[in-house]
Each structure stands twice: as C-alpha cells, then as structure tokens.
Amino acid sequence: MVFIIKPKVGEAQIGNFVKDWENKGFSTILSVGTEHTAVCLIGNTAAVDMDHVVETNDIVEYAKRVTEQYKAVSRTVHLDNTIVDIGGVKIGEGFFTVISGPCSVESEEQIVQVAKAVKASGAKLLRGGAFKPRTSPYSFQGLKEEGLRLLKIAREETGLPIVTEIMNQTQVPLFEDIDVLQIGARNMQNFDLLRAVGEMGKPVLLKRGMASTIEEFLTSAEYLMSSGCKSIVLCERGIRTFETMTRNTLDLSAVVLLKQKSHLPVIVDPSHATGIRSLVSPLSKAALAVGADGLIIESHNDPSKALCDGGQSLDLLQFEVLMQELKIRAAIEQKQL
Amino acid sequence: MVFIIKPKVGEAQIGNFVKDWENKGFSTILSVGTEHTAVCLIGNTAAVDMDHVVETNDIVEYAKRVTEQYKAVSRTVHLDNTIVDIGGVKIGEGFFTVISGPCSVESEEQIVQVAKAVKASGAKLLRGGAFKPRTSPYSFQGLKEEGLRLLKIAREETGLPIVTEIMNQTQVPLFEDIDVLQIGARNMQNFDLLRAVGEMGKPVLLKRGMASTIEEFLTSAEYLMSSGCKSIVLCERGIRTFETMTRNTLDLSAVVLLKQKSHLPVIVDPSHATGIRSLVSPLSKAALAVGADGLIIESHNDPSKALCDGGQSLDLLQFEVLMQELKIRAAIEQKQL
Amino acid sequence: MVFIIKPKVGEAQIGNFVKDWENKGFSTILSVGTEHTAVCLIGNTAAVDMDHVVETNDIVEYAKRVTEQYKAVSRTVHLDNTIVDIGGVKIGEGFFTVISGPCSVESEEQIVQVAKAVKASGAKLLRGGAFKPRTSPYSFQGLKEEGLRLLKIAREETGLPIVTEIMNQTQVPLFEDIDVLQIGARNMQNFDLLRAVGEMGKPVLLKRGMASTIEEFLTSAEYLMSSGCKSIVLCERGIRTFETMTRNTLDLSAVVLLKQKSHLPVIVDPSHATGIRSLVSPLSKAALAVGADGLIIESHNDPSKALCDGGQSLDLLQFEVLMQELKIRAAIEQKQL
Amino acid sequence: MVFIIKPKVGEAQIGNFVKDWENKGFSTILSVGTEHTAVCLIGNTAAVDMDHVVETNDIVEYAKRVTEQYKAVSRTVHLDNTIVDIGGVKIGEGFFTVISGPCSVESEEQIVQVAKAVKASGAKLLRGGAFKPRTSPYSFQGLKEEGLRLLKIAREETGLPIVTEIMNQTQVPLFEDIDVLQIGARNMQNFDLLRAVGEMGKPVLLKRGMASTIEEFLTSAEYLMSSGCKSIVLCERGIRTFETMTRNTLDLSAVVLLKQKSHLPVIVDPSHATGIRSLVSPLSKAALAVGADGLIIESHNDPSKALCDGGQSLDLLQFEVLMQELKIRAAIEQKQL
Questions:
Q1: Would you call B22 helix, strand, or coil by DSSP?
Q2: Residues D324, D212: one domain?
Q3: Which residues of A touch C240 (CB under 8 A)?
Q4: Distance CA C100, CA C316 (A)
Q5: In this predicted structure, what is the pLDDT of residue D46?
Q6: How many independent structural domains does chain C possess?
Q7: What CATH number is given to the structural domain containing D130?
Q8: At what angle do helices D108-121 and D316-332 cross, to 10 degrees?
Q9: Which domain holds residue B289?
Q10: A67 pLDDT tier (thresholds 50, 70, 90)
Q11: Closest CA of chain B from A4, distance in Å
Q12: Is the CB of C329 less than 8 angstroms away from the CB of D328?
C-alpha cells in the first residue's frame, strides 16, 4: 500500500506519519520525487482501511494498493523518472548513454587504447571485465584484481567512469573505488550479492537473467533498492529461447514494459543478446528507437585476438561508425548522446 | 549445389545446361537476378565434382555448395534483394511499406472507414481477417466469404490492395481475386497449404510460426517458392517464450538474420507480437531502425468494440500519429514510406 | 455452464430441457456418461441465473460454471473416464495400449514384416506414415495413396487396426477406411482440418503442438468433439524448449494434468519427443509409471536404412525387449497390456 | 585428451606420467575407478600427438579426445558409476534414495516431527531450508543459523544425514557440520560459490538451473569436481518453458542423458519441478522408472500452514503412501529403497 503525500508537506510531518506505521509493525519505503513524496508500507496490509487512512490524515493525497512484489522500484510508488548520475554522466530521461569496452581487460595497453577510442567516439562510460563468470572452469577467468587496477588506469587517462562486474560479496572491498558495479545475468537472483551490493550505496548496473521474467527482474532490483541502493540501471541482454541462431533472443518489448512499470532507466546489451557482430549495429539502433536510455556494447582493438567473446565485439572503427549513426538518430528522439 | 552463370550468357545456353542436369536426375531451380543468373541443383549432389563442372562448362563462373535446406529463397542462390510488387505497391529495398486494418472485417461501414483512414495516414495495403483461426471453436470465426466481399469493396473505394488470410487449400478459388494471401503463424508448416498457395503464383505474406526457428521459417518459404510463388514477404510476429507479460516475444534479431540469409523482404507485426497497444508504436519504430521493410499493424475505428483483438489495435488517430513519427524516421533510413 | 442431470431422468425430459435452451439461442453439448448425464450451454451465459435454473428444473441435480474454453472434453462436463474403442482395441482406463510401426510406410514387405513383429510383441495398433509432413520440400514426402493401400494390406495380414496421419481436409475421402486418423503436432491448430476430421466421426489421435499449452491442446480437442468426434486420444510428444540435446522436451507432467482436466485417454510418443533411440525405452517406462494410457513408438525392421527418422526408431528386437519390460510394469499398475 | 591407463600399473609410474605432463604446462585430472585409472589433460592439447603418446608410453592402454567442456565428471574420463556415500547412506547404482523434509525449517518441533515421520516411511536423508533464496526481499528468508541448529537436532534424534542449501561462500564455516550441501538452481552458475564449496570436499547436491542446458549443468559440476569435490549428486528439478500450468517443466529425458554422459548419480525433485502436490506422486514413480537414483521431495506436518511452498508439499501420510508405492516399483527396478 502506498500513500502519496500532498505537495509541500514538511519532512517532520512525513516523519511522524512514517513512525506511526513503523510503530504498528510495518516496514516503510520513503520515496522522494521532485513533485511527489510517497510512503509505501511493507507487511501484511490486508487489514488496513485505505479510505480511513486518507480521511484521517490531512497530509495524504491518495492511497493505492501495490499488487506487485516490487515496491520501491515501482512507478506506482515513485512517479518521476529516475536519472542515474555517475560523477556527472547521466543515464535516464533525455539522454542516450553508451557504455563500451572489451569483454575482458587484457593489458594496460589494450584497455587504455580502447578507452581512448570509445571516448573519442562518444562513449560516456568504460566497461571491461576483471572477474569473468565463465561456463567452464578451464576458460580464462579474467585478470581479477590486476584487471581492476588497469581499469582505474584507463579511467585516469580518459576520465571515463568505469563499469565492471562483481561476482560475489567477498569482493565488496575491492570494488569501493569502482564507479558502477555490474551484476551479471547469472547473478540476477544471487540475493545475498544483491543485498551486499545494495548496502554499498553505489550505482549498479543490473542485468536481466536469461530466464527471468520482467517481474522477477524488477523484484531483484527491489533487493538492491531496499538495501540502500538509489542508482540502479536495468539492462536487457536477451533471454533464452528455442531459437539457436542467436545466443539469446533480445526482448525489446521488455524495455518498454520496464519503463512503464518502473521509474528506473533501462539500457540494452546487443552484444551478449546475440553473440553476432553483424547484429550489434542494427539492434543498437532498434534499442534507441524503442526508447532505451542507452547501450552497453563490447568493443575491442583487435577482436580476432580477444581472449573472450571476440565474435561479438566491434572493432574500434565499427564502433565509431555506429556512434555516428546513433547520433543522427538520437537527435530525432531528442536524446543527448 | 549452385552454379553462378557468367554475365551475358544466353537463355538457350542456360537452358541446355539445365536440361543436362535434369537428364541426370536432378531437379533444378533457375534464379534470374538483375546481374546474376544461378542454377541450383536439388537432389543428392554428394557425388558431383564441383570443380570439374566449372572447368568443363564455359558458362559457369563459379559453384558453391548450399548447405541449408532452403535453396531458392537463399541469398547464396539469389544475390539481389527481391522487391515484391503488388500492383505497383512495393515491398523491399528502399521502401518501408505499412499494411494496416482491423483484425476482423466486421461490416462494410467498418472496413471502408478504416481503409480510408489508414490510406490517408500513409498505409499502402489494407489487411482484414475474413476467415479467422481462433483457439476456441466457440469464438467468432470471421465473416468468411462475406468478409472477402467487403474487403473488395474497401479496395474499390480506396485503391488499396488487400491482404487476408487463407486457412486451407479448398479456399483457393475464393482467393483468386485477393492481392496478397496471408499464411498465418499456425499454418506456417501446413505444407499442403503452402504448396497449393505457391501454385497460385500470387504474392504471399508468410508469418513465422510461434515456435519456428529462422531456418524452419525459410524452409517453409522454400515450399512456396519451389511451387511457383515468386513474391514472398516474410513476417516476424513474435515467438513463444517463458515471458508472460507479452503474448509473444518479438524477435527483431530475426529480421536482420532473415535478410542476411535470404533475398526476400521482411516485415514486422508488432500487434500480434505483443498483444498490447502501448507497445505497438515503440516496436514499430524499432522495426524500422533494425532494417525491416515494413509493418503490418492492426487498427480499428473503435478498438473497444472490436470483435477480436481490440486490446492490441490502434485507433485511427493513434495510427495516424504513429505514421507521422515513422515518416521522419524513414527519411533517415533512406526509405520511402 | 453445465447442468448435471439427476440419475434415471428419461431422454425425453432431457430433450425438452435441451430444446428450451436452444430456443433461447444457446448451443448445447449433451454429455452422456455411465452414471451422469450433463447438458452444457455454449454462448453468453453471463446473464443466466444458475441457482434459479436448478430450483425450477426438477431434473437438474446441480449446475456449475465452466471457466475453461473447452467444454465437451472437460471433466467438469463429463465425469467418467472415456475409453476409446477401435474395433475392440481399447485405449483408456485399465489398459496400456501400445501403437507401433515405422515412421514411413516404405514397401509392402516392410510394413507387413513390421506389423507382424510388433503384433507378436504385443502392440495392439499399427502406425505408419503415408502422407508425411516434412520440414523441407525436397525430403521424401511419403508413398501417399500407395502407402494407405499397403497399410490396409498389413491390417489384413495381422488384424491390427491402423493409425496414420491425415494432412488436409481434401484427403478425407481417402481416409474413410482408416481406423484411427492422426492429426500431427504441426496441424494441432489447423482448425479447418480439426472440424473436417471431427465430422467424419472416426477415432482420432491428436498430437500436442510443439509450442502448445495444455489449455490450447484441450481446446483443439474441443474442435474435434464439438464437430462430432466422440473418440479422441490425446498424445503428448514433447514441447520445444531451449534444450538442444533432445529434439523436444517430453512433458510428462502434462499427462497427469490432461487426465485431471479432461476425461480423454492420453498416450505418449517417446520417439518424436526425444529423437534419440536410447531414450525411448526409459521414457516409455516413465510414461507408464506416470499414468499414461499407452504409447506410440516408432519401430523399423532396419532402422539404419529407414527413409525417415531412423535414428529414433527401435529395431524389432529392441521393441520386443521393451514390451517385455513394460508387461512386468503394467501388471503393477493394474493395466492390461 | 584422456589417457586410459593399463590395469595394474603402479601409482608411482602413473605419478611420473602425470608429472611429465604438468612439466609441459598442462593441468591434469587423475580419475581412479575400480577397474580403470585415467589421466585427463587440461590445456591446449591441439598439438599433442595422441598416437605417439600411446606408442611411446607403455602404461597407456589408449587415448581419446574429450570434446566436452566437462572432463572429470565425464564418463569418457571415468567409466564406472560413482556411488556417493554419505555416512553410509548411498546414492547411485543399485539404490533409490529418497530425501525428504520441509521447504523451510520452522521450529524444533516441526523439523523433528517431520524427520521422524519421513525416516519411518523410508527416507534416508532429511532436507530442510535454513537459508532460503526468495524472489522477493519481503518474503520469509528462513531461520538461518537457527535453522541449521534445528536441523542438527533432528539429525541427532533420527540419525538421518541432513541436506541444506548454502547460498554464498561466506557461509562456508557455518556448513562444516552439514552432511550434504545443496547448491540451488539459481546458483548453478555462481562459479565462485561452486569453487568454494568444491574446496570443502563435502558431498554436494547440485540442482540444475532452470534455464541451463544439460551441457552447462555438467560443466558446473566440473567446477565442483575440479576444486576437490568427489561426491556430487546431480538433481533435475524442471526447466523454464512456455507452459504455465506447471511452475517448471520436469525434463526426465535429462536424467537418462546425464547418466549416459556422466558417471555421477542423478536424482529428481518433483516438488519444485511442478509446484503442484497432485503431480508429485506420479512424477516420482516416473523418475524411478526412467532410471533416476533417487528423489528429493518436500513434505510437511501441516502443508496448509507451511511458511513456504505449502502447495507442493506432501503431508506425512501422503508421503508414507507414496513410499509404499515406490517400494513395490523399486523392487522391479532392482534398486534398494
């Protein structure tokens, strides 16, 4: 159940209202928007007489039941679009933000070269895997701490904030200085990791699990937000279906639905969604057209020699060409690229 | 196995080459493009010495094995993009062709009103169901012959060619005067229907089955083309996945892959793909951006009273607004809308 | 809405009750069981006052809303288990009936040899494809009419009733003398075929579509029954999923659910479900254990030379061994094999 | 590449052979079976001349390439069936071992009562969730450490070894005294957890991820085994498909394939696979018939009041009846229940 508070009601009054509910045994979520503040009750609200609360509380404009399992990330509770701000780089309404970089950080030379190139082409954040979740224990597992160190060098050289994947909660101390923590598709329902990362309070890029429904995806985001994370970027990266010609099936309908049901920004990963280089560019344009807030694209200085996922990586020229094509189209969508 | 014939080789010579192979027990497909003519062998070609054929036949430029089950629809056999021409209306390279109309033809007034409106907004063909495949035997099954009659009146009034679904081969005589025969998703592997419709030689709109792979889709198109149909438009309309928030999952990657692997035009049906009106507009823009050659969109003069699928139909104003938005974007893609 | 009629009410009285409803514009389904007769209304029953009908009609024991789209095949309307009788061969409660034979009829010698062998091993019906639905137009399409002729010879020689697939309604006259008409997975929602076959009044083996839900499957059976078919055998044959190691994923849960929701017998096709010979035997035993009423299994006198699906066919010895194993287990399930 | 060592070759000789390869930069897996010992190389073996190795090494019987990503768990590397032994309770060939207990440990009274009852009915291990992975952060998350304590009391009272889920690697110290560590479906590709649990060297029950292929499942087991775990029990628990009538689709074909491709025992979880109580019993019998080595079944003293998954739990009487039915059938399969 959510109570939308009347405009201009003071913090103290809202605080008292919240405290009353907590004294009755409910947990609460306080959602402060630019125009609306809302208080959402967590707990068994079946017996709460919604109309009575509205009638007897001057500060409440109206009340609604929240039937979804997710609350804090729901648009019912928070009406405004959330714009995530990463050291000045924005993801959300009015922007089309492109994150790029290699699947794996391989060397200082590689990551710095890629970072400079993608920045020059218009990328606003640098991605790169240090800890790599790999299907087989015998595959390259990433440079680990060394990979993080090299990412920070690339950040130093370019000013691009860095996005990289955290695989388990014992790694939290290593990620204190990372700008955006990525939670991978396979970890979307690693609930302890969600909670631990949520408590860090840093921006998070949460990827949709490859067999996760939209509702489960948002409910995993709720784990993050209910643990303290305010800056969540959702990422559609393809779901597993019977079709084998692509690695996964990119679900662009999900982008629209996620933005209808939640206030969070949504980006698209066309590289992992398809696993095929020649699909990255057309699907990137489609993601922009459908209303996504950005992209995360794998790029590499020499895809044929990449230690991981070379077949889906753009080379630096292909990335530049794509960015030019996106710029023209972003203008039409009135988004800043 | 396909033999690409050298430019400027005469018909007679090619005819002899074909006859030779048929005498040896092979079937052949003759594919005449603007620049290249190709002869494709059907049968057990394992024992054919490809190099020997090229060396001993002056008219052959080169030869290739066709490993796919589809041949005539394959880009390996036919290099040029096919542009389907329906009485002057074109679907294919350089065009973005929108087909619109109601799920079901309901009355003369309805279909004529919708036809006029969608034409005014820029649609180039009129769709409307006369024979309706319905999950339940107790649901409205369409106006049948009467529906076809009303469609022709609407064509008369507007000049729009008409697209409507044929459900079985006994209906062939009823569809002689229909411009484009639609084969529905549930009939994509109704092979006898494919053959019967293929033999009519009329343009066909073939929808992807909801559990069909891209390869199966193209192999069904091969049934049509090998039976005599030269004008096939492929239609991606969503596949069945575990996600339940949309009726199906629109697979826009398939559009790109279909155009890579085949020379046929590909359009998108965002209405049936999602079943949700608010998704039709964003997914239409995404289809354009990804490289589709057009759309088939359900529209209705009064969706709330539609006998079928009202929840996914645009009203006539929504359709007009969408067409305006598409026009701006088609210009950028250098396509004529 | 279904009205369960009191025991021992005469036909005439029930006839009048039915006529009353039809006069009011409803269609009706009359379901006569051994203990209960039921009258089910088809149409808009929203305004019918169920309690009032029960109170004012002496012959009605009780009434229920039928919320499913299927009515005549629903256990709500028909409480007893239906046992399908094919010239004395029974499929349903108390029996475990095995149908076997080759994917395709290839020659008189082949089909007669297989028929004799599978009969000797305990099969009660002979299957064999005459008209074959094949993904590619260039694959062997069956012996067609000749195949039907050979099947009848095999029936003559062995006494086994024959099961074979009808692919479209123009074939109806060819199938008048066939004992059980099979409707294949790809045609499960070929509604015109369902209706045409239903009107023949002959026993039908209906296979589940590879992307069809249990509810859609039963609603397709409703097309058959509402057209006049009283003897329907449902067949679970695997659904399409992301797993590629098997051709399909056999859904044995569906067997239990189909029997809970419907009164029709349910058999299992382990050959097409998996496409792998070594899985046929264990899944056959599992089908028996889960409560299926029988199996349809591909067998061949020389699988390595089969024109179709040899890789999933048992040879005649393997079939015999399997039947021995099933006999021991059928005894425990108190089913006659 | 795997080298099968000749019978009766001494440990020292094998040790030297292994050391040679490690000196050349390969990792090795040593697999000791009752009849065959095998040495499997991990690394880039493309340049290794297999025949030369066999010819020049007296101790090698033959060599094979292992094309799968999994090695140590592969039947190619380890020919004998592995029987997992948990304090005398065996899972594997010749046994049909049933694990039962509630979804969540709720109280000492509950877990002890259930443990005594399932033991009396023939269960050989006790399951019970202490740490619960829940889709929503607002659902009951288990009694945690207290739950582990209560499980140990139930073990004390009944002698049943206990199986319970570990959710992340920081919990390793808490699980030192647990008999079998369960890794849940959502964590099947939590690679860091697999490694940490593998290093503990304790028996592990690994559940198949709901969108994981059979190959991915075995490759996750490879993480465990390559980290030191010798006792792995695989558990098929249903995969996610388009069918919504069951929670998941139980894939019994996978049981057969897992046992063909791997030497590890495989059990089935019919409770989570379907989410429906009335399906548990028929699918349990089917699992036995298909060749599974056991079951894990949710049971509860009062399912209607269960804090979690009551709808799929058997009550104690239903469990007892099922066990009776399984005993009769296990005798036929020559398995000890």
A1: helix
A2: yes
A3: 242
A4: 10
A5: 85
A6: 2
A7: 3.20.20.70
A8: 30
A9: 84-332
A10: confident
A11: 26
A12: no
